[in-house]
Amino acid sequence: xSGVIQGRQTAAYDGELVVFLIGMRVNxxxxxxxxxxxxxxxxxxxxxLSNDEDSGLLGFRTxxxxxxxxxxxxxxxxxxxxxxxxxxxxxHRPAWVDFFRTSYQGGAVGIWHETYVVPxxxxxxxxxxxxxxxxxxxxxxxxxxxxxxxxxxxxxxxD
Length: 159
Prior knowledge:
alpha+beta
């Protein structure tokens, strides 16, 4: 039970939140030269963001599948997410350009993302006898009672 936090906890975060899902899917396993560079591109981006306290990335979780990977990312704001994505001096923009130049044609690998902007006070989390996970891992946890004993109470806090 290493790392398990006993009892009911909730994420210690109530500001605006951007949930960004991003992933890649290998469509043709045999075309290794086309999909391996795409698979390798995310690591340097995550290291860069994690080492920059002002990047806006609050935390992330990686979910591998047999054909690809999905990342759940938590961001402070959509502005910081877009600033990172569009800055040619950071790791994302060159990787994006390289993807379209070398891997997009032929469809051996696909990429996708979804962005959800959640206004402050509109998140609700619960972790019962769990290790740190999700938003709780990204921003820490606190006892449920501190923000309300029920999901409805925790969501009403912004009223």
